[in-house]
Structure formats: C-alpha cells, structure tokens
Design brief:
Elements lengths: L7 E5 L4 H13 L3 E6 L2 H12 L6 H4 L2 E5 L5 H7 L5 E4 L12 H16 L6 E7 L9 H14 L5 E6 L2 E2 L4 H11 L3 E4 L4 E2 L2 E2 H13 L4 E4 L6 E2 H10 L7 E4 L1 H14 L7 H8 L7 H7 L7 H11 L1
Helix pairs in contact: 1-8, 4-5, 5-6, 7-9, 10-11
The chain binds NADP nicotinamide-adenine-dinucleotide phosphate (NAP).
NADP nicotinamide-adenine-dinucleotide phosphate binds next to helix 1, helix 5 and strand 5.
Length: 314
C-alpha cells in the first residue's frame, strides 16, 4: 500500500548496496522524496542509471530523487544537502581500511560532520547502520570505530538510532556473489569453519531502517537474521541449492591473520586485512526478536528463502 504522507529522506552512502536498495524501495512503495548523497560523479551516474533503467519506475518517480555529490566530512555540504529533509539514513562505512581510507574518516568523522550538519535543519531523526559486535572498546579496530561512530551520533541534537546487523545478503551484492561461488564450486578451505553466522536479508534491513525512521527509534539495537549457524553449515546449506556436495576444510584463523598481516606489510591496498578478517570471524549470535518488536516487524525472511532469492532466483 502506498503511504499518503510525503516524507523527504536524506540518504548518505546512497550508491552502496543498501543505499540503492532503499532508494528503489522508497520510490516504488511511497510518494516520498529523496536526496541521495554520494561522493563522486560516477556514483551519481550509477544512481541516475539505476532508477532510469528500472521498468517499475516512471519519469515522475525519478523526479522525486535528487542526487548530490558531497564530502561526507564536510559540514556545510551536508547541511546544504539536508535542507527540507525530514529523516536521514547514514550508510557510509567500510570493512577494509587502507592508508588512504581510514576507519576514523569513514565512520567517526562522517558521523561527527553529519550531526553538526543536521543540527539546525528540519531533519528529525537519523538511522545509522553498524555491525554486530561494534562497541568503542572492541579489540577489533573496525568494530571499535563503528562503536565510536555510534557514540558520536548519540551526542548530537538529532535523535539517532543505530541498527547493528551481521552479514547482509541481497540480490547482486558482493557477499551473495562470494557465497554463490563457494556454493557452486568444488571442495574448498574456510577459515574457522565453526564461527557463527546469522545472515539477514537486505530487504529486511531496508524494512527495519524504514521502521526505525518512521517510529523515531532512539539508541542502538542488534538485529540478526532468523537463523544462526556455523560458517561451514552456511556454505553447505547454500551448496544444497545447487545439489553440490563440496567438502569445506576448516583452517585455523591464526593462519588467516598471518596471511593478512603479511599482505598488509607488503601491499598498500591488500585484498584482506587483519581487522577485516576479525569482523568476518566475529561470532554473530543475537536474538532479533526484541528489536523486531520495537520496529513492529512480524517476521524476517527465512534463511532458505533468502538463499533461494540471492543465489538462485537472481
Ligand atoms: N552489507 C553488509 O553486510 C553490512 C553488514 C553490517 C553493516 N553494514 C553497514 O551498512 C552500511 C551500508 O552497507 P552497504 O552494504 O550498502 O555498503 P557498501 O555497498 O560498501 O557502500 C558503502 C558506502 O560508503 C561509501 N564509502 C566507502 N568508503 C568510503 C570512505 N573511505 N569514505 C567515505 N565513504 C566511503 C561508499 O562510497 P563509494 O562508492 O564512493 O566508495 C558507499 O556509498 C555500511 O555502513 C556498513 O558498514 C553492512
């Protein structure tokens, strides 16, 4: 059902997997307006193409979308982009930091600039997406940075809600592609195959963000998927969809850290870092029900339906 109340959203990190998804969702299912903030012209074009090539969106729908190129740490640019907006969704974040892209800049600095930029605007609420396990005193530098960012948001004048989610699986995203390659491939190695995963469907995350924003939920909440299983079990469950029977051999995580450490030492932009590995290795086990109740969500997409959607139907 299309909502009658027109709301104007400010979405930062709008060209990411979840940003694109929420834009299409809002244009398709509401009459709301969107200011999508990205940090490059190429990202701006990605969004314009995303909506103009979508057969389910009309030219009128596309007129409700404005794309703004800005620096996420520039208070004045964020303030200008937010004029007339009611809600903000902050989706800026990185899993891998490099010498040129630090966790501090992407997480803490962007949140500090956002609360300053929104302070005297019409924006009444911010929804931020973080990672399960994030807290300022986390040993992992990515999780600590996300925890610091959450704490910074809480000091702002604009009420803010952080949803901490584990692995998100959506159609066409990187994580689903990697899982599909595992599932459809031959026997393979896996670091600490008994680490716990609790994937959540990207569509459910978008619904949760919309619910947090419309109820103006305040504070930080964990929201995991409907099922918690080991990484090996997840791979095998996905492989079942392809009637594939690969054998996944578990390797000690210490070996992964050794490899990541060496890559970090010799490469400016290594494919994997120790902090990234630590996030992926985190044991995700949260009870989603309390947050679902707060958000008014009755159910989450089951793991089997999620895997079918992102690995087979897509
Ligand atoms: N997807 C998941 O599994 C997952 C799980 C837990 C939490 N989250 C959180 O959810 C949020 C959105 O996730 P997503 O999957 O949509 O992420 P995504 O596809 O990786 O998009 C991330 C966004 O952040 C921007 N960005 C990347 N590096 C940056 C930097 N150094 N400085 C400033 N901006 C930078 C990207 O812009 P460019 O394209 O210009 O680089 C993009 O707009 C993130 O904060 C993430 O931490 C995601």
């Amino acid at each position: 059902m299309i909502s009658k109340v027109v709301v104007k959203w400010l979405i930062t990190g709008a060209n990411g997997n979840l940003g694109k998804r929420i834009i299409v969702h809002l244009l398709q299912s509401t009459r709301d307006e969107i200011v999508a903030v990205v940090r490059s012209e190429s990202a701006s074009q990605t969004i314009q193409q995303l909506t103009s090539s979508n057969a389910n969106l009309s030219a009128g729908d596309n007129q409700r979308l404005t794309v703004v190129v800005a620096d996420y740490t520039n208070v004045e640019q964020l303030q200008a982009a937010a004029q007339g907006c009611d809600r903000a969704v902050h989706l800026v974040g990185i899993l891998k930091a490099t010498a040129y892209a630090t966790y501090e800049a992407a997480h803490e600095d962007s949140c500090a600039a956002l609360i300053k930029g929104l302070a005297d605007t019409s924006v009444e609420h911010i929804t931020y997406l973080s990672i399960v396990g994030s807290k300022p005193d986390a040993a992992n530098t990515c999780l600590a940075s996300k925890g610091n960012a959450e704490a910074i948001l809480a000091t702002g004048n604009t009420p803010a809600c952080t949803l901490r989610v584990p692995m998100v699986l959506g159609e066409g995203d990187y994580a689903s592609g990697a899982l599909r390659r595992r599932a459809a491939g031959k026997n393979g190695f896996v670091f600490r195959g008994d680490s716990l995963e609790q994937p959540i469907y990207a569509g459910d995350v978008v619904n949760a963000i919309c619910a947090a924003a419309s109820t103006k939920l305040n504070g930080g909440y964990d929201l995991g998927g409907p099922e918690c299983l080991t990484r090996k079990q997840l791979y095998q469950r996905a492989a079942d969809l392809f009637s594939n029977k690969p054998v996944f051999v578990s390797l000690p995580i210490s070996l992964g850290y050794l490899v990541a450490g060496l890559l970090e030492k010799f490469l400016a932009n290594p494919p994997i870092t120790s902090a990234m590995l630590g996030v992926l290795d985190h044991d995700d086990r949260v009870d989603p029900q309390p947050t679902m109740t707060l958000l008014g969500m009755d159910e989450l997409t089951s793991l089997d339906a999620m895997l079918q959607a992102v690995l087979v139907s897509d």
